[in-house]
């Protein structure tokens, strides 16, 4: 019987050691769960902040687009007014870069403005149209000017460029256009 008691006491000691080990493992797992819970809360808060920032960015984009739409009309009006006041600005060297600088906007903004708000596909097409209209006005209003002078005054590099452009758009050369306007 003493042997049985000794075996039971050894079994109790072993079970107490196992119980202690399980208590330590339980404490370790609780600590790990607490750490994971904190990380999960941090991740959730971060996700909420990211979602809020995304929503704010989208709202900002919408407001910018709406502002651009209003600003586009004003910018076009300012552009036309400025070029009407000083048609001599549109020289052969005057391009998108110079037009953007004149208006105080970036080239990208100017290109987007023309693509979205005008009948012209690009600032270059707009400037080319201004040159052509100026040349037609000069041909009509100043019969004493030579074609070379009109070409230079309208912002063309050469008489040939003016002739080619007029032939493409109105189907007449500068001389033919002048003769037609003199008859009227």
Describe this structure in words.
It is a single chain. By secondary structure, the chain is mainly alpha-helical. 83% of the residues lie in helices and 0% in strands. It is built from seven helices and no strands. The chain has helices spanning 2-85, 96-103, 107-117, 123-141, 147-154, 159-170, 174-183. Helix 2 (96-103) crosses helix 3 (107-117) and helix 4 packs antiparallel against helix 5. The longest helix has 84 residues, at 2-85. The chain is rod-shaped, with a radius of gyration of 40 Å. The model is unreliable at 66-70 (pLDDT under 50).
Concise summary:
This protein is mainly alpha-helical and 184 residues long.
**Unreliable spans:** 66-70
So how many helices?
A: 7
Alpha-carbon Rg, integer: 40 Å
Largest sheet: none
Number of strands: 0
Going by helix content, strand content and strand pairing, the class is mainly alpha
In terms of quaternary structure, what is this?
single chain
Give helix and strand order, one letter per element, not per position: HHHHHHH
Blueprint of the fold:
Layout: H1 2-85, H2 96-103, H3 107-117, H4 123-141, H5 147-154, H6 159-170, H7 174-183
Helix pairs in contact: 2-3, 4-5
Descriptive tags:
single chain, 184 residues, mainly alpha, rod-shaped
């Amino acid at each position: 019987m003493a042997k049985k008691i000794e075996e039971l006491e050894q079994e109790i000691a072993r079970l107490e050691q196992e119980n202690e080990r399980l208590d330590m493992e339980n404490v370790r797992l609780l600590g790990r769960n607490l750490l994971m819970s904190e990380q999960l809360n941090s991740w959730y808060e971060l996700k909420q902040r990211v979602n809020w920032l995304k929503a704010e960015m989208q709202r900002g984009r919408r407001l910018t687009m709406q502002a651009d739409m209003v600003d586009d009309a004003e910018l076009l009006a300012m552009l036309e007014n400025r070029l009407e006041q000083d048609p001599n600005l549109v020289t052969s060297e005057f391009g998108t870069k110079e037009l953007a600088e004149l208006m105080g906007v970036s080239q990208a903004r100017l290109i987007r403005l023309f693509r979205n708000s005008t009948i012209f596909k690009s600032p270059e097409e707009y400037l080319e149209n201004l040159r052509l209209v100026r040349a037609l006005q000069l041909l009509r209003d100043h019969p004493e000017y030579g074609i070379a002078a009109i070409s230079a005054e309208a912002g063309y590099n050469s008489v040939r460029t003016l002739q080619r452009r007029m032939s493409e758009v109105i189907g007449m050369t500068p001389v033919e256009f002048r003769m037609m306007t003199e008859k009227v």
